[in-house]
Design brief:
about 60% helix; 2 domains; 5 helices; two-stranded antiparallel sheet; mainly alpha
Length: about 130
């Protein structure tokens, strides 16, 4: 494998490295991902338990039991299923560009130097014509 130049390493870093831009501590994801998977399953189990409780007892009869069974076996509609999905973190190049634009907008950096830095990031992240 050929050695990479520092410029190629920087371009790879900008393209492959990712950062959490959700606005929370990146370490808290360890706990929050498990929680966000657990809560919808618990809600589904609770809903199913309520349906089954309605069909218990001698007064309920066979019609109520059949209706509950049909509702449990029926495909859950999308509004009944509570879902949570992970999404991937943002590439480092986008994070750095966003920070540079914010600095220029707030007057923390000169607009010209911010534009020059943004252009340098764009050049580094472009795919080489091969």
């Amino acid at each position: 494998m050929a050695r990479r130049s520092p410029q190629a390493k920087k371009a790879l870093s900008y393209a492959r490295d990712r950062r959490n831009d959700y606005g929370e501590n990146a370490k808290s994801s360890r706990r929050n991902i498990r929680r966000n998977k657990r809560v919808p399953h618990r809600a589904d189990r609770h809903r199913e338990q309520q349906l089954l409780a309605a069909a218990t007892g001698p007064v309920a009869g066979t019609e109520a039991a059949e209706q509950v069974e049909m509702r449990l076996l029926a495909k859950k509609s999308m509004w009944m299923i509570k879902r949570w999905r992970k999404w991937r973190d943002t590439p480092l190049a986008e994070i750095v560009a966003k920070r540079l634009r914010r600095r220029a907008r707030l007057g923390m950096d000169e607009p010209a130097s911010g534009q020059a830095r943004l252009e340098r990031i764009r050049r580094r992240t472009r795919k080489p014509a091969a």
